[in-house]
Amino acid sequence: MAEETLTKDSILDAAESVLRKFGLAKTNMSDIGRALGVSHAALYRHFDGKAALRKAVVERWLLGSLAPLEASVREEDAPERRLYRWLQTLRAFKRERARKDPELFAMYAALVAETEGALEEHLQHLMLQLTSIIESGMAVGAFACEDAGQSAMAILMATTRFHHAAHAAEWELPDSDARFEAIWKLVLNGLASRT
Amino acid sequence: MAEETLTKDSILDAAESVLRKFGLAKTNMSDIGRALGVSHAALYRHFDGKAALRKAVVERWLLGSLAPLEASVREEDAPERRLYRWLQTLRAFKRERARKDPELFAMYAALVAETEGALEEHLQHLMLQLTSIIESGMAVGAFACEDAGQSAMAILMATTRFHHAAHAAEWELPDSDARFEAIWKLVLNGLASRT
Fold first, then answer.
1. Which of A151, A186, A191 is nearest residue B154 as measured by Cβ atoms?
2. Domain B3-60 of CATH type 1.25.40.880
3. Which of B80, B123, B150, B160 is the best mutation test for A, with the most CBs of A within 10 A?
């Protein structure tokens, strides 16, 4: 690749392949430069070293789930239905990723776990979307919670089993749907207005 | 150890030490017999092979959490408080184990994950206790849920972050308490009678 056409995204693609092949411990910037056919220095113009590059790889992976969720945030519908759809979209997105390429999914799960702050930052992004749905439910009197942000955190934590990679092995089990629905019922009831 | 004084528990103790030292793949019945100074045949009088022994080791570890929980099931108090105490006891028990001997905790976490059905069986035990608390709350009109067993499952799933070993790294974080309380609030509200 010519160094002047090198983009962040092409570097991240190459880093993903190299990481997949060699693992985090054995991958260095030279391997990624070699895979792209560019110099060490060209890489450093985009990323300030292995730690920065790795963080960017992880972020791009995690951000991938936000776009499909964004639709549920924007749509016009009853807040309960938007909330349900948002949670199901998150769940389906993760499950589909794990199903499509289990090896890549496992690599990223390990990479995320090893990258300090990555998962917390991702939770913050998810929280923002969720908070916005809950706020609109509060505005129309559908949800009676006091603090939309706190409720968003509680809902994210309560649905851990369906979006945290540590539980991917359960996602294809026959009772996964029933378990999700049981939590959903509890959550919805917990949010509901008492009037 | 004299073969006639060999007990299931002494074998499980020895198996734990050997597993800890060598890991699951490299441990066999002979290693455990050697650690106890007894014959292969003596071990087989108690356990029908490595798989059975390993299952028993895992079960003993998981059952350890049930005894302290049993107290919250039996106590006389408002169902909301018993439920809260049960969840906090489970959480504290797991956290204390992880804190006291992180290496042993990690070994068991891996062992549990690799032992088919072990975690599901453990969930069933927990569910029974939880269901009994919820039923007594339904009986006095404190909880309005329709199906105690389904609510018990939902609550166990919703509190995954605080008792599943995959999340042990978060248990000492400063906001762990706040997150737990946020879920508790949602759960309690979700169960509460609307009258």
1. A186
2. no
3. B160
